Sequence to fold (273 residues):
Amino acid sequence: MRLLFLGDLVGRSGRTAVIERLPGLIADHRIDFVAVNGENAAGGFGITEEILGRVLGAGADAVTGGNHTFDQRDALVFAERQERFLRPANFPAGTPGRGAGLYMARNGASVLVINAMGRVFMDALDDPFAAIDKELAACPLGEQADAVVVDFHAEATSEKQALAHHLDGRVSLVVGTHTHVPTSDYRVMAGGTACQTDVGMCGDYNSVIGMNHREPLRRFLEKVPGERFSPASGPATISGLAVEVDDGSGLATAVAPLRLGGVLSETIPSFWR
Ligand SMILES: [Fe+2]
Ligand SMILES: [Fe+2]
Fold:
């Protein structure tokens, strides 16, 4: 089974690249399941239901979030009715929407997707390790789920790597999002879980983590906020992680980055050729 996870879509540049190229990628490489982090898809802040529909229409099977999930206020409403839209599972009780969902892949397999948010250098939230364990207990790999994808939206590399060890052998993939720059530590761990500390973003890398560099730079130089951040509008690099999952065990057998377009060098997983 072929899984693809795409990092945070940032603004028009990132979402347009993904909406235009994802259908061809799925068809050309026979990808069974696609999860996408969409927390920055609308002007860099949150996602609207219309954009969500276009990302799902391009072939995404689940759209995850993070600290920006509810920046567009209508997400508080559509989070309830859009079953393929996930927000972090460790948000407080009573938060609209869901933190995990079980979806059917194109090959007929059941894929559990869990979204959680870290706590180091981020908002005070419930324990993400316990929240993920609870979702896994309700839908274990090899029983109700044929594959499990965890999007851990976190700042600290230490917290993300600790979670990968915590989940090794119990999920197909644990992938970091939020920092918007891809790390080169992607691998299959000893227990069979694929991991990467951060998958990177789908956006214009000629920027400061997807935003036009001028205002972030100005704030470092002067420490006085001026304009709002706005997404950089140059050509986007699609940045993701491809995972081969064993149909029997649901564990990973191979993992490789995908990078297409923009200013980063292109990489297509060799096992897709
Ligand atoms: Fe993000
Ligand atoms: Fe984030």
